[in-house]
Predict the structure.
Amino acid sequence: MAAMAKKEGKDVKLYNFAWTGKDKGGKLVRGELRAGGETMVTATLRRQGIQVSSVKKVSQRGGKKVTDADITIFTRQLAVMMKAGVPLLQAFDIVGKGHANPSVGKLLIDIKTEVETGSSLSAAFRKYPQHFDALFCNLVGAGEQAGILDSLLERLATYKEKIQAIKKKIKSALFYPISIIVVALVITAVIMIFVIPTFKDLFKGFGADLPAPTQIVMNMSDFFVAYWHLIFGGLFLAVWSISNAYKRSVAMQNMVDRLMLRLPIFGEVIRKASIARWCRTLSTMFAAGVPLVEALDSVAGAAGNYVYYEATKRIQAEVSTGTGLTVSMQNTNVFPSMVLQMTAIGEESGALDSMLSKVADFFEAEVDEAVEALSSLMEPLIMVVLGGLIGGLVVAMYLPIFKMGSAV
């Protein structure tokens, strides 16, 4: 019977309802509840001692996708409200209704409903793994058990803000050169398809052999005009295939992530960012009182690079058999000596979380400096490349005209 009831409950479609009523003290209260119908809303509120005045179904507005930045902002807002003494369910109401993205509001109402029906906060978060990873749920669970949820939420919010900041720095370092390369390809394609054929018609009555650079550019233009749809279609298909394969294939992730670490200039920035995230995550988990072996599970997925994911799994296996953390890290050969020395000091002094936090701060500062240096270096380099490409095409097309002028 219980199994059948559970199955029927899963088949019930849930909607959001806005309600108003009076509490036991006669005070006017209002809120939102997710349920299968108005009757269920009324029954739930009556059990809570609320005399219902009205229940109205809330129309589902379209909303953007819930991003990691949205979850970071929500975590900070929830931490601030709980520190200020706002009750948990009321905090969810305030944050959900005040958010600009309706999708976030809906997500928070759903979580609030789970808590109202008896679930712990960490259990409610675990039902939405696409938004709340194991690290998030483990820290919230640890805070609930220890009775320090407000402190753990504040620590979690700080952690997510730092991780978001380092992600943005890596994206900014990669975005600029990639965007310039895309613009250069588009400009080159436009010149090849629309501009150079005009010169070709002009040179038909030239009456002499064209210079070699001009002839090469003309042949390239003919190829672009004839097969532009195949070129752009092939590029799009290649990017889509690689992206799709990366998401689905572990072997592809391993290969791409290893390649990223070996890139000149950029590889070192990505390596430092991965180490900073690794140390920051382990420091946060360890400070929250999560056992080391369990904490390494969350750390593996948070490093953002499959090389460090594999290394963390090896560390976890060795630590679980009694090997020290520093020795296990050294055996992977992916951590610099400075990280190993700081970890060893942390283990010996019993301040591992503090030492790892200092290492994370150091490498985050290194990433900041590297990104600034890259920005300064890339601007003149890209200008030279673009100038050489566009200037080379222009000179190649004007060579016959210069040759004609010298002949006259």
Notes: The radius of gyration is 30 Å. The chain is about 75% helix and 5% strand. The chain has a mean pLDDT of 82.
